[in-house]
Amino acid sequence: MTHITIAAVTIFLHRHQAHRALELHPLVSHFFRFWLWLTTGMVTKEWAAVHRKHHAMCETEADPHSPQIRGLRAVLLRGAELYREEADRAETLERYGKGTPDDWLERHLYGRHSYLGITLMLLLDLALLGPIGLTVWAVQMLWSPIFAAGVINGVGHYYGYRNAESPDASTNIVPWGILIGGEELHNNHHAWPGSARLSYQWWEFDIGWLYIRLLQAVGLARVKRVSPPPVQVVPAAEPDAEAVHAIVNYRLQVLARYGSQVIKRIHREELRRVASNRNLKGVFKRARDALLRDESLLDETARRSVGMVLGHSQALAAAVEFRRRLQAIWQQAAGQPEKALQALQQWCREAEASGNRYLQQFARQLAGYRLNRVR
To answer: Does pTM top 0.85 for this prediction?
Structure first.
């Protein structure tokens, strides 16, 4: 029963209502609404509004549940309370809750009497199971607040791996999205929030996507958008306009690959170079993850560590500067595509002339980026 609840949250509330990534048949949509009313008491408009605000204000003071701002412990233990506080704000519902169900049932039952469903669930558990039904009901009530509100919003912005360097702290907790319906792949979602599929790499599994595909196969769902497929890299001597277009389109993947193929490898070599200096070695180790993140996401301690490392490593300082210049290119591309192309060509030439083999290899790949139009 808790798994059905999680499926309702990820398919109906999250992908269908909050992000409009798919359409659901009215029968399926209403089943999910009824089930969520019965097992969680959550109101569709409130959930969608709070989640949309999280994306709009991610990792800022206005974010309803950022562990970077409020602390991991607070989000893990008080995730449901933080959600409730934000859902009670009329301005949040007005601004971010548009387009959610507003029929008679929503106005007179699901939204107006949100606690009636979970009370009915308690009575059913007691009638069917006796006293142990109270324990079963408690598990049902705690499942979503702990895992959806606490783990995803907390751990999913703190620990894990990243496929894309999205401008927030989101992470993929594990590559197999089963227990929480695919929501474990949280970095993928923040990189492509409008995608009905949360998996990205071939080795990642999103069980929510499996359910959506099954619903689609029997005509009960229609997928509107999915995350872009992995970029295709072809041999090329120099970047052209198509390469610029592909790099802009895949910029989050490009940043992630730059981090793993250039910065991480240079950091590994520099760590060996300073191995005899215990204090400096410790600073280099602590700064590894911070070197991969956007500076705006770093706290003062991490910034100091990065500053010390860059002061002791010309190679890393150059790699970080090359990354900054690469980011500036796609900011230029929207209004001045010709200048962006010239800047990318210059970037690749200078990377080749840098003498760093990791930068050289990455520049050769970058020149050959193309959009993969196969879906």
So the answer is: no
